[in-house]
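Open question from group meeting: does this chain pack into something compact, or does most of it stay loose? Before anyone orders reagents, we agreed to write out a predicted structure and look at it together. Recording both the input and the output here so the notebook holds the full record.
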Amino acid sequence: MLEQNHVTELAKLIGDAGVLTAPADLEAYQNGARYDRGRAAAVLRPRTTDQVSAVMAYCVRQGIPLVPQSGNTGLVSGSTPDNTGRQVVLSLDRMNEVFRLDEDNRSLTASAGWRLSDVNNKLEANGLFFPIDLGADPRLGGMIATNTGGSRFLKYGDVRKNTLGLKVVLADEDGTVLNLNNELRKNNTGVDWKQIFIGTSGAFGIVTECVLNVEPLPQQISTAYLVPKSDEHVMTLLRAMEKRFGSELSAFEGMSANAITAAIQHVPSLRNPFEQGIVPSFVILAEVTRSWEPRQGEQTLDAALEGALAEIWEMEGEPLADAFVGPPHEMWSLRHALSEGVSHSGKLIAFDLAFRRGDVMKFLSKIRSDLALCCPDLTICDFGHIGDGGVHLNLVLPKNSKQASDPDFEKQLRDFVFSIVVDEFGGSYSAEHAIGRKNQTYYDLYTPQKLREMTKDMRERFSPGDLGAVRFG
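Structure tokens returned:
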């Protein structure tokens, strides 16, 4: 527990309601979204940038380690405390005072504590949305700290691409506030400092406010499930769709049979959309969108998609084994339910990986083959973003298996998978989850020493205090 004198002083800065110390109150903040179990000395819940600054200055001067936490939806132990009981969680969950839309600039200035769903609910009245599509419902600060990508990266890009400005509090004795809230879309007057705080897990400072690019809500949406003839035909299908739709192609998501089956079995609201209930070995969810209402005489988007699929069906090599157009809500419901379904299937060991697009199916073919030989009890439930090279590789063990409770087995498995990802394919062991305690070892292993030294020097220059769960050294 945090010493009472610190509790008293911090309460003076952010109010009694802003400081939590009772074990029951700490529970939700020290347990992560998946298997994370830490011990917090206390939880601080400021409301404003000034309060974050005051808290930061006090904690740095007193040597109190802080772990920033946004929506607590991360999966790599980047926003939860460790088991020492020394770390204090600084939560953004009360930071929602600022919400200012500039329709002419098509930008939103908002506090970092807003949840993605609330942001989009408020923007909908103006025909706009923040175009990062996720199964979870994080807060803006965490999305920036991890540089979230999502299912529509193919069209809209990641958080980095859609961030115009930030307001950040540094971990120094003054709790320095950097106002980088530039609303300009073009500004080349020096170093783009906001980039230091995007995708670096809160280690360089705490984002308290942001300026985001927002996009027009799609007014026409059409989706289809595509079944490739084989793994080798997946890229042929992607190129064919991009050739026919260009920027109208907004998603190209791959889903394995095991992942789909897990979702159908464990999410009662889903229906099996496949003929006779037989799930193909690999299915692609393709989405095309238009930002304008249907125009008189214009071919509907459904008709355009059906026409394109008919052309692809006749292509040399016959890359398409099956396809059908269906209601977007139903088709996306299955895609968004994959994580939940897989998580209920057994003990889950999850990986968030990235490759060159052409290597995605090659990697999946290799890993399936290798794991079948060495770990026959594992069920491989993979899905991900074929359009941007992202793979969510989920390995599931029976809950009652000996290996499920063996931390050494998980460590060996991660070492094995990451060696293939990085050494053989030149891929990334963290595509959009950033760095946390779970992959600290691999950051240390795969990041060149010179880059680690440069990052450490920069980190100490910006925020010398004890901030965050990751060590960029």
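Observations to bring back to the group:
The chain has four domains: 4-91, 99-216, 220-339, 346-424.
The first helix runs from residue 4 to 14.
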